[in-house]
Design brief:
The complex is a heterodimer of chains A (194) and B (95). Chain A is mostly helical and 194 residues long. Helices cover 66% and strands 0% of the residues of chain A. Chain B contains four helices and two strands. Classes of the chains: A mainly alpha (194), B mainly alpha (95).
Chain lengths: 194, 95
């Protein structure tokens, strides 16, 4: 442990590279984008070295920069998405509910100890895969809310949507993710049990 | 069409409405009337009650795993490729 104000960029890649990469991967689900943001983060850190107070840990400082880069990335992406095609009308599937708004096929019973379901290490990988199946809009909104833990006001600014719109997006994202995780979990369990 | 109001004026919510409101309640606090409507519905609807439990479990799991991420090397399979590592080193040497 050196002095906190000691900064040696030559060490950065080995010391923090993988950590920052994993951090970015979990949020972006895109290898090359994550690598680019790690590089941008280090370069920005190099430029702003003077601003590093040494009060926080170096890793915390770098993650702070990365968080901004990730938000920028989402901002760019939401602009591209809104220029392109809109999300399909109700991807959560009208078929989940009948005409009177009742479940056609309700959520499955996850058993007495549903926590066990997600205790496995692969949960984050499964979540990432399920997120990849969503449209970028839905996946990014969920990520900002549940992984980054931002409030809805901030997310609206990043994704440039109104709050009522964001609620709809988050609702659909949660419904689709729940279904995807359930399908994966049951598929795995029956595979193992046979 | 779906929404009916009973004699006391309490809004009758469908499962579709309730799933929307469950999600919204995870982002903001619902107005009292809606909150009561959801609670009453959850008392009598097994599927919606299950749905809420499962969404909250997913949230909890995501949060705890994300919080643990920094401290443990859980997903050590994911690392920068050698190529990217070299590229970044080079960029840092001549920014």
């Amino acid at each position: 442990m050196g002095k906190p104000e000691q900064i040696d960029p030559a060490d950065w890649v080995d010391r923090y590279g993988d950590y920052l990469f994993r951090y970015a991967m979990l949020r972006l689900r895109d290898r090359s984008a994550a690598e680019d943001l790690v590089q941008e983060t280090f370069l920005a850190a190099l430029r702003d070295r003077g601003a590093f107070s040494g009060k926080s840990a170096e890793a915390t400082w770098l993650v702070g920069i990365l968080k901004h880069k990730i938000a920028d990335h989402f901002r760019r992406q939401s602009r591209e998405v809104s220029l392109g095609e809109d999300d399909p009308p109700d991807p959560a599937g009208e078929s989940v509910f009948d005409a009177s708004g009742h479940w056609t096929a309700g959520p499955a019973d996850w058993g007495a100890n549903p926590e066990d379901l997600f205790r496995q290490k692969e949960f984050l990988d499964q979540l990432a895969e399920c997120l990849s199946d969503l449209s970028p809009n839905h996946a990014n909104a969920f990520t900002l809310r549940e992984i980054e833990g931002l409030g809805t006001g901030e997310i609206c600014k990043v994704l440039d949507v109104r709050e009522t719109n964001l609620w709809v997006i988050l609702h659909r994202a949660r419904m689709l993710l729940r279904r995807c995780l359930e399908a994966r979990w049951f598929a795995k369990r029956t595979g193992k049990g046979s | 069409m779906v929404r009916k109001t009973n004699r006391k004026g309490v809004m009758m919510l469908s499962c579709r409405d309730v799933t929307q409101l469950i999600s919204r309640s995870m982002d903001t606090s619902l107005p009292l009337g809606k909150r009561v409507g959801v609670r009453i519905h959850l008392l009598i609807c097994r599927f919606c009650a299950r749905y809420e439990k499962q969404l909250l479990l997913i949230r909890e799991t995501v949060r705890s795993l994300v919080a643990a991420e920094g401290t443990s090397g859980e997903r050590s399979t994911e690392a920068l490729s050698e190529e990217a590592r070299e590229r970044i080193r080079k960029a840092l040497r001549s920014p």
